[in-house]
Amino acid sequence: MRLLVCGGAGFIGSNFVRGRLRGGEDSIVVLDKLTYAGRRENLQDLEAEPRFSFVHGAIEDPPAVAAAIEGADALVNFAAETHVDRSITEPDAFVRTHALGTFVLLEAARERGVRYLQVSTDEVYGSIEEGSFTESSLLDPSSPYSATKAGADLLVSSYHQTYGLQTLICRGSNNYGPYQYPEKLIPLMVLNALAGDRLPVYGDGMNVRNWLFVEDFVSAIGHVLDHGVPGETYNVGGPDECPNIVVVRRILELCGRDESLISYVTDRPGHDRRYSLGSEKVRALGWSAATRFEQGLERTVDWYRDNAWWWEPIRSGAYRDYYQRQYGLSLDR
Ligand SMILES: NC(=O)c1ccc[n+]([C@@H]2O[C@H](COP(=O)([O-])OP(=O)(O)OC[C@H]3O[C@@H](n4cnc5c(N)ncnc54)[C@H](O)[C@@H]3O)[C@@H](O)[C@H]2O)c1
């Protein structure tokens, strides 16, 4: 299959591209704006692969999309602004990329009859105290990030209903694994623990997340792309739930540090308490998660320990100022 992968230089997109190129016959064009979170380094090991090419451009730019989609059989859209904290201080880019960008991609796919898969998130359902969300649960997003992602999902569904475009939506729970930018909980805590810096924990640390190893999410996305029913949405939840503070304590253990490094900081406004997804529908399609949280977390810590070339440039650059503004703490090392 000839795939256009938008946002393929980010965390999940680059893992998807790597998995598809190594496991099959696809040829892949990545279209990516290279925001702070998108990095060519994430695809560095694939640059020599003849079935891979890269286009630097934004999904909200129709000429860039028209050039990149030429000859594609399917489009997978990972391109997004993805950090809830940034959506609270600077929501503009979230509206531009999720609303306008998704619209431009859908129009390009509709004109050419290209199968379209939108990568989305459990956050569109909001928080849930007990039980798990299904695909028919109400959308009740609480941040500018999740609200604009929910809007994009609705637009995608409308292109199936109105124009008959072959659309699919995959809503994943919290991902973790190699190549994740260290503003997100797990890589942030791992890098701080490895360096001996303090670990900033929001509120009481009891926010619960449904952890999904990135290799499992990308295998689910590939499976839905190949076997999903057009017009349908598939939830992809991880096999284990865990409160943030338990995740942080386990990371400290794996890095050989003690709990004196933990600093409790002021909670994020509107911080969702618990996310949980039921994945029965995607399991009925033939997919299942292969990695339990304990094993995936160990692999993730090992990867960050072994790949300082990847994170050192991030941790020594503008990220330090962002970090200080966000947590009121500085990175000492
Ligand atoms: N990280 C998670 O836990 C998680 C869970 C479920 C779903 N998702 C969804 O998966 C997708 C990918 O998330 P991620 O964690 O890999 O994000 P990321 O921030 O690591 O990567 C996003 C990528 O999109 C690119 N991008 C941003 N705006 C763009 C634009 N306007 N045009 C072209 N490229 C643009 C960035 O340069 C970057 O390469 C997102 O849609 C996100 O909502 C993420």
Would you give an account of this structure?
This protein has 333 residues and is an alpha/beta fold. The protein has helices at 11-23, 62-69, 84-89, 92-112, 144-163, 185-195, 214-227, 244-254, 280-284, 293-306, 308-315, 319-327, and strands spanning 2-6, 27-32, 52-56, 74-77, 115-121, 167-172, 175-176, 199-202, 208-213, 233-236, 240-243, 262-265. The chain has a 7-stranded parallel beta sheet, with helices on both faces. It has a 3-stranded mixed beta sheet with strand order 7-9-11. The chain has a two-stranded parallel ribbon with strand order 8-12. Helix 1 packs across helix 7. The relative contact order is 0.13. Bound molecules: nicotinamide-adenine-dinucleotide.
The whole-angstrom Rg is 19 Å
Beta content comes to 15-25%
The average pLDDT score comes to 96
Q: Tell me the helix content.
A: 40-55%
The end-to-end span amounts to 46 Å
Biggest sheet details: 7 strands, parallel
DSSP strand count: 12
Helix-strand sequence: EHEEHEHHEHEEHEEHEEHEHHHH
SS field, number of helical segments: 12
- Uncertain ranges: none
Query: Which structural class do you get from the secondary structure elements?
Result: alpha/beta
